[in-house]
Specification:
19% strand; seven-stranded antiparallel β-sheet; globular
Length: 279
């Protein structure tokens, strides 16, 4: 029984997600949590700069932050989010990965990654993608700001659409105030739009899927404090993938031909480069 939504509301939200491939929920994070998360990002960047990957002039990502701090655990376990995810995915839901993404103001509006699907870039493998991402806005995202964009129904009814065939100006810009949570199917075609004069955009991004003997990515460790939890409020297999070594072949897996001496930041940069070549 949800403390935030009625059964009818959850049914309607799950139905909208199933049809459109995404949901936008305002006030998923309250003002105190916003302050907490934003301060935690600033602390972590100062304390653990090696955990942050500079992917472009305007794009910085904190990938493997969970071993360093418990500050973001409540974002992963947010009951306002989990209540909806449990209706979409079911009680076999598992946590997959977590990242922090920062988009800085930039004059280079052409460096954005184009339309794509997550996890697996190859078009003929698109049906292997079975995960839901939740992006939490920690800053306001207005029509003037860098934003997340999505092409509705491309996870299902329009699943045969190739990202390379989507015009640059297509899709829906998903705007919202700080505290908004955006749920989207990783198979849905999406991307970002850079805007001149944007302020810094901050988001937390978590991925969830159904339990199976495979994980979508290996960049985000699940520390002992999480996989050792015994919390009846959480789904029973929520942190079951803490030691999973079977990683789906895709952009979340370390390529076998890369030197083991490369740092995780260097590996991610190379994986991102290879992923762009396949788009």
């Amino acid at each position: 029984m949800s403390q935030f939504y009625t059964d009818r509301q959850l049914e309607q939200l799950a139905g909208e997600f199933d049809e459109q491939g995404f949901l936008r929920i305002e006030d998923a994070v309250d003002a105190d949590q916003l302050l907490h998360f934003n301060a935690a990002i600033d602390r972590h960047r100062l304390a653990f700069p090696d955990r942050w990957v500079e992917l472009s002039d305007s794009f910085c990502e904190g990938t493997n932050v969970l071993p360093d701090t418990a500050d973001f655990d409540e974002a992963i376990e947010n009951p306002r989010v989990l209540d909806i995810l449990r209706r979409i995915i079911g009680e076999e839901i598992t946590f997959e990965e977590f990242a922090i993404m920062l988009r800085e103001p930039t004059a280079n509006l052409d460096e954005i990654k184009g339309w794509h699907r997550d996890i697996v870039r190859e078009y003929d493998r698109r049906m292997e993608i079975d995960a839901v991402s939740v992006m939490v806005y920690l800053s306001d995202v207005t029509e003037r700001d860098h934003c997340f964009s999505i092409v509705p129904e491309t996870h299902n009814r329009l699943v045969d659409l190739d990202p390379l065939e989507v015009p640059l100006d297509a899709g829906v810009d998903v705007l919202g105030p700080a505290g908004t949570a955006v749920f989207f199917h990783a198979r849905a075609i999406h991307g970002g739009r850079l805007k001149p004069g944007s302020s810094q955009r901050r988001t937390l991004q978590s991925y969830y899927s159904r339990w199976r003997d495979q994980r979508t990515a290996e960049w985000s460790e699940i520390p002992e404090r999480l996989h050792g939890k015994s919390d009846p409020a959480l789904p029973p297999r929520f942190y079951a993938k803490w030691n999973e070594t079977n990683i789906l072949e895709g952009v979340g897996k370390r390529p076998a031909d890369l030197s083991p001496d490369l740092s995780i930041s260097e590996v991610i940069r190379e994986v991102q480069r290879r992923g762009r070549e396949k788009m």
